[in-house]
Amino acid sequence: MPVYIDYRKCAHCKICYEICPMDVYGWDEEKEVPYLAHYDECQHCGDCYYDCPQKCIDVTYPVCLW
Amino acid sequence: MLAESTVDETIETDVLVIGGGIGGIFAALYASEGGARVVLLEKGDTRRSGAAGMGISVWHQLLAPGVTLDDVAKDITAIGRSFIGTLGYLPIMKGIINENLIYLGYRDNWEIIHSLERWGVKMKWDNGDYAFYSGPGRLDNIRFHGRNLKKDLSRALKRSAVTVLERTMGVDLLTKDGVIAGATAFNIRTGEFIVIKAKAVVLATGTISRIFNPFNVTALGRFRMLYTYHAGSGDGAAIAFRAGAELVNYEVGGTGAFSDGTRTEKVPFYLVKPGARLYDNMGNRLEWEDCLGGLNTHTQFRLEKEGRAPCFWDGAELPDEWHEGFLAEEWREDLKLHTRPDCQPITAKFLRDRGYDTRKDKIEIVHCKPEHNSIFAGVLYDEYGQTSVERLYAVGDMTGGSTFTGAAQASVFGMRAARHILANLNKLEQVPIHEEQVVAQREMIFSPGRVKRGVEPLEVEVKMRDIVERYCGPERSEGSINWGLWRLRQVRDRFLSELKARDNHELMSAQEVRNLFLMAEGYMVCARERKEGGMMNFRLDNPEKMNVPWGKAIIAQLENGEIKISRRRMPELRPEFRGK
C-alpha cells in the first residue's frame, strides 16, 4: 500500500480525502475515516502526509523507486 | 458503485475555465475581478492540484530592478550558456518559437507578483525584500516560500465570485455552427453530468505526463514521484485539438538528466547550480552540459553505447549547508536562501528513507523522457492566449510555441487571456446549446459503466505508452514511427470502445485514456514530419540532419478526423520590444 494510516489519531477532518490530487481516498461515512479507494493512483506526492493535521498518514517508499 | 445522475445541471456563465492550476486560477480571478461571471473546473482540488501543488520555490522570468531582457541574455551568453527562456537560445530553435511570448512573460510579470501579494501570497523573503539570486546568470528569478502557493491561491479563489467546481472534469466543448457555446463536465464525486453555457473558454490543463512510461514504473503501471504530477492526461489539449485548434512543435519533448529513484528535477537543479560533479560508471569526470541536469540526452545515449553508463552526480564537494538544506523537509532560517524544502519536500523524505546521504552517496542519472510540458510543444497561442479557434484560449504548460513554461508564463497569460475576453465580452452572444452534442458526450462518459467484460483503462493506457516509447521514443525513424502509428490506431480502434469502469473515478480514467490516445497520435504524426534531429528528437534515419536549424515549426490540426500538417515560421521579437 502506498500510505499507512494510523486511524487512532484520525480527527475526521476529511482533508486527505478532499485534497488528494489523484483521488486516491474514499470517505467512509459510517466510521468517518478515509480509506484507499484507488490506491493504484497514488503518485506519492506526500500531500496527505504533510497536510493531515494529526500526522496520521505516512507515505511509504515504493519498491519501484529503490 | 456507479452513480449516474438522472438530473443534468445546467450553469450559465460568461467565462469557463477548465483547469485549476496556476494558469486557470489567474484567468479566473482576473476575469472575475473584471466583472465577468466565471466558472472554474478542477478535476482534483485547487489546493494541491497541478504542477505547483507540491510547492514551488522559485518564481521565474522576473527582471530585477534596472535589469533588462538584453542584460539577461548577454549575461547568460557571457558565462557560456544558452538559456531556454531568453533570447540567447540555441540556434536550432530559431523560427520555431514566438519570441514575443517570452518577452511578454517577462514584461508583465511584476504585475503578477503584485497580484499574488494582493491575494495573500508572500512573495518577499524573510528579510522583507525580494530575494533575487545574485551572481551571473541569475538576474531573473526570485526565491520565495511557495510550499503552500496553491492553498493560498485556492483561498483567494474561494473568496472571489468565481464558481469553483472541484472534482469536476471538463469533458468537451459544445458548439453551434462552429462557434463555442460552452462545454460539458463530469463530477467524479457525485456522478453529475453538467452542461455549462459560456461565451468564452480558457483551457489550462497543464503538462501531459502519461504518454511515456517513466523510469520506475510500479507493477501496476503508475508513476511514483513524477516531477510534474500524474494527473496530466492532456484533457485540455485534446479538447482543443478536437475543436480544430492548432498544435505547435508537438514532436519536441524535454531534454536532460533526471535522478533515478526520486524522479524529480529538484535533484538536478539543486546539484548543478552549486557545482556538484559528474562521473561516468568508471569514475571518469564528465563536463557539465548546458541543459537540465547537466547531461544532455544525446550525450547519455552515446555514453550508454560506449559502455560508460550509468552516469552519476556527486555532491561530495558541496558545503555542508547545502546538504542540510537539500535533505530538509521544512525550511529553517539557518538554511539561508536554500529553498529546497519549499518545493516537493517529499523527495527529501524519500532520499532519507532510502538512506541517501548526499554527502557520500552518488545519485544515478537517467535520461529525461519526452513529456509534453511545453518546452516548446503544445497548443498554439498568441499574445492574448488565443488559440486558432475563436473564443477558445489556452494558457500555461499545455501551450506551446514559446520556450518558457511554468508558473510565470501561465499566470501572465492567464491574466492576458482574461483581459482579452473582458475587452470583447460585450460583443459575444451566447450561442445556443446543441442537445445532440450533450447527449453524445454524456453517452461517451457513461458508456464504460455499462460494458460487461471490457478492459481496464490503465491496461490500455500502459499499452499506448509502450507503443509510443518503442516506436517513437527519443531515438526514432520514419519507418519505426509509421509502424508505431499503425499499432497505436489498431489498439485504439480495438479497445477504446471496450473500456470498462467500476466507479465514477474510472469513468474519468476512461476519458483520460481517450484524450491521451489522441495526443499520443498527434505527437507521433508530428515526430514523423520532423526530419531534423536535436533536443529530444534523434532521427536515426537522418543522422546528417542532427542539430541543423529547424527553421519552421510544425503545426498540426485535426480536419475531418485526419491530422493535417503544415509548417510555419514563428514570429521574431518585434522591434518595439527590443532593447527593453
Report on the architecture of this protein.
- The complex is a heterodimer of chains A (about 70) and B (about 575).
- Chain A is α+β, with helices and mostly antiparallel strands and about 70 residues long.
- Chain A has two helices and four strands; from the N terminus they run βαββαβ.
- Chain A has helices at about 15-20, 45-50; strands at about 5, 25-30, 35, 55-60.
- In chain A, the strands form two sheets. Chain A has a two-stranded antiparallel sheet.
- In chain A, strand 2 and strand 3 form a beta hairpin.
- The relative contact order of chain A is 0.33.
- Mean pLDDT of chain B is about 85; it is low at about 1-5 and about 80-90.
- In chain B, helix 1 (about 20-35) runs parallel beside helix 11.
- Helix content of chain B is about 30%, strand content about 15%.
- Chain B starts with 8 loop residues before the first strand and ends in a 12-residue tail after the last strand.
- With about 575 residues, chain B is of the alpha/beta class.
- In chain B, strand 14 (about 275-280) and strand 15 (about 285) form a beta hairpin.
- The chains are: A alpha+beta (about 70), B alpha/beta (about 575).
- The interface of A and B includes residues 37, 42 and 59 of A.
How helical, in percent, are the residues of chain B? 25-40%
**Into which percentage range does the β-strand content of chain A fall?**
15-25%
- Which outline of chain B best applies? globular
- Describe the main β-sheet of chain A briefly: 2 strands, antiparallel
| Run of helices and strands of chain A | EHEEHE
Count of DSSP-assigned helices of chain A: 2
If you compute it from the alpha carbons, what radius of gyration of chain A comes out, rounded to the nearest whole angstrom?
11 Å
Which stretches of chain A of 5+ consecutive residues score pLDDT under 50? none
Average pLDDT of chain B: 87
What is the number of strand segments of chain B?
24
Total count of strands of chain A: 4
Helix content of chain A: 10-25%
Poorly predicted spans of chain B:
1-7, 78-89
Mean pLDDT of chain A: 93
The largest sheet of chain B, given as strand count, sense and whether it forms a barrel, is: 5 strands, parallel
